[in-house]
Each structure stands twice: as C-alpha cells, then as structure tokens.
Design a protein that fits this description.
Layout: E1 2-7, E2 10-13, E3 18-26, E4 32-39, E5 46-51, E6 58-60, E7 68-73, E8 78-83, E9 92-102, E10 116-117, E11 121-126
C-alpha cells in the first residue's frame, strides 16, 4: 500500500490560488497513476484530475476549465495540484489517491480504480 498525506489547503478569496501537495510513502508510487478528487459539502466525492506515472498523460474534469494543473516529482514522492482562479464552488475536501496498477499510460476518472487514499485537505473559497 501507499500512504498518502495531503497538505496546502486553507481559506482563500475567489480568484485566488492554492497549491496542494500529496506526500507518498510506503510502496513505490513512481509506477502508479495518481488522482485528485474532491468532496464538496453534502456531496459525493468527484474526480478533479489525474496524472500518469511518467507525467506523460494528464486528464481533468470538465469543471476545471484550464484552471488547475497536476504535476508530480517521483524523486520526492510528491504530487501537486495547482489551483488558480478559484471559485466558491471549488470549496471541498481535496483528496489524492493512487491507482494500484503499474505503468498505465492512461489515467482513470473513476474513484473505483484507486485503492490508496489520503485523508484530505480542506479548501474553502470565499466570495
């Protein structure tokens, strides 16, 4: 298993930016796709975006609309979510997750394809 710990959340005004980090430990994660999900208040978990093991593929949910960027540093066992132009509707707990399948060239938007999850970090965007 991979242990995941998110950080970087907080309170930000609409239009602002945040950079979330996800630190991985345990089983080697450099072979695995990583996803970011979020859980808005009172709603189900939803896909935000994902990045393949080599960073060659990224895929984002429609609502991202070019505002968010996922990157990773395998040497540091880190994955990042840069969020710009934040909106109040981006308020949620943000979670990172690891796909257990090795060396996948494509990434999945389905939460059921991810096995290891962090606890999440709260992002609150005020209007």
């Amino acid at each position: 298993q991979v242990q995941l710990v998110e950080s970087g959340g907080g309170l930000v005004q609409a239009g602002g930016s945040l950079r979330l980090s996800c630190a991985a430990s345990g089983r080697t994660f450099s072979k695995n796709s990583m996803g970011w999900f979020r859980r808005p208040p009172g709603k189900e978990r939803e896909f935000v975006g994902a990045i393949s093991w080599s960073s060659g593929t990224t895929f984002y949910a429609d609502f991202v609309q070019g505002r968010f960027t996922i990157s990773r540093d395998n040497a540091k066992n880190m994955v990042y979510l840069q969020m710009n132009s934040l909106k109040p509707e981006d308020t949620a707990v943000y979670l990172c997750a690891a796909d257990p399948r090795d060396y996948m060239s494509e990434v999945s938007p389905s939460l059921y394809d991810y096995r290891d999850w962090g606890q999440g970090t709260q992002v609150t965007v005020s209007s």
